[in-house]
Amino acid sequence: MNTSISGKIISVVLPVYNETMNIIPMYEMLLNVISKVNAIAELIFVNDGSSDNSLEILRGLAEKDKNVKVLSFTRNFGHQAAITAGLDIAQGDCVVTMDCDFQDPPEVILLMLEKWSDGKKIIYGRRSLRNDGFFKRMTAKLYYKILYKASDIKIMGNIGDYRLIDKSVVIELRQMKEKNRYLRGMVPWLGFSYDIVDYNRPNRKYGKTGFSVIKMSRLAMAGILNFSLLPLRLGLIMGIFIIATGMLFLCYLAIRFFFDDQFYKLLEWLAVVNYILIGFLFILIWVVAEYIGRIYDEVKGRPLYVIESKININQA
Ligand code: UDP
Ligand code: MG
After folding, report:
1. Atom of ligand 1 nearest to the CA of 82
2. What burial letters (b/e) apply to 117-151, b meaning 16+ CB within 10 Å?
3. How far apart are CA 91 and CA 67, in angstroms?
4. pLDDT level of residue 2 (50, 70, 90 thresholds)
5. How far apart are alpha carbons 54 and 22 in whole angstroms?
6. Residue 257 contacts residue 263 (beta carbons within 8 Å)
7. Cβ proximity of 10 and 34 under 8 Å
8. Which residue from 30, 71, 99, 158 has its CB within 8 A of the most atoms of ligand 1, so it is best to mutate?
9. What pLDDT band is residue 304 in, cutting at 50, 70 and 90?
């Protein structure tokens, strides 16, 4: 096996929301996988306000095995918050984030580790086969298409939160304090060298999905709003369209008036002028939106740049 991995600490962050049946098999499988490369596993389970007895099971595990670490939220804060909490305490040389329901097959970690030892800082898991229902597959496809077109950085489709990131990436990610978190955008935003591992996504092993349509839409909104200025610019597009068509109407009235001796009442002229004015209003809304966009950018407090390496510079 790859010697550059042996002895390294590999953290695995698993958000847990009502996963009673999955926790123990997942734990055993992960230990098995990580022992294959002679590495040390740090398993971080983040209980996201489960209402079943997931927490008791995790307590039991943590008592037996000191490498099992458990964070437990007071209530359900959501999957992105759970992953973030895990990343904040992870001490590994690299950190794998994955679902706790076997939909992110644990053996894929071995492929990720191999690419990591080749020097890549981020290894994304890409679902080549989705066993999700028709509705979820279709909406996901459409959504990623829009997101890809609209976002300023290229967020690839079919890439979820199953990924391995190097410690250096974790450190940078901790600097990104934005509250509306969309890690699928934040990680690529950071830059860093990356690679992709394809895997087939099976059905969830036990239990049922904790992702309601509302939770899903919230995540989808975060993706678009946090990584694209397109919605803000709708006002500009509307404004230009209305002013342009308004001008055409005005020209039409003027030509009929001057050349066809067609008489228009004042009200009819005003109607067209009003229409054009609405266009200007849209432009104004867009201007305000641009300012709001800038304020949003500032308050997100993302770092201005990310440095991967320094040469001949000694300060820490
Ligand atoms: N999860 C979570 N909080 C939630 C919903 C889900 O921590 O509010 C966890 C869940 O335990 C699992 C992962 O996030 O480990 C993915 O959730 P799920 O399998 O329910 O989503 P799906 O695969 O259906 O999109
Ligand atoms: Mg799942």
Report:
1. 7
2. eeebbbbbbbbeebebeeeeeebbeebbeebeebb
3. 11
4. low
5. 9
6. yes
7. yes
8. 99
9. confident
Which atom of ligand 1 sits closest to the CA of residue 103? 23
User: How far, in Å, is the centroid of ligand 2 from the Cα of 198?
Assistant: 17
pTM score, whole prediction? 0.86
What's the 15 CA to ligand 1 centre distance in angstroms? 7
Closest ligand, as measured to the CA of 132:
1
Alpha-carbon distance of 193 to 169, in angstroms, equals: 10
For 290-299, the pLDDT digits (tens) are 999 999 989 9
Tokens (6 digits) for 32? 């098995």
d(CA 56, CA 58): 5
Residue 48 · residue 80 · CB < 8 Å: no
Instruction: Tell me the CA–centroid distance for residue 204 and ligand 2, in Å.
Output: 5
Ligand 1 nearest-atom number relative to CA 100 = 15
Nearest ligand for residue 133 CA: 1
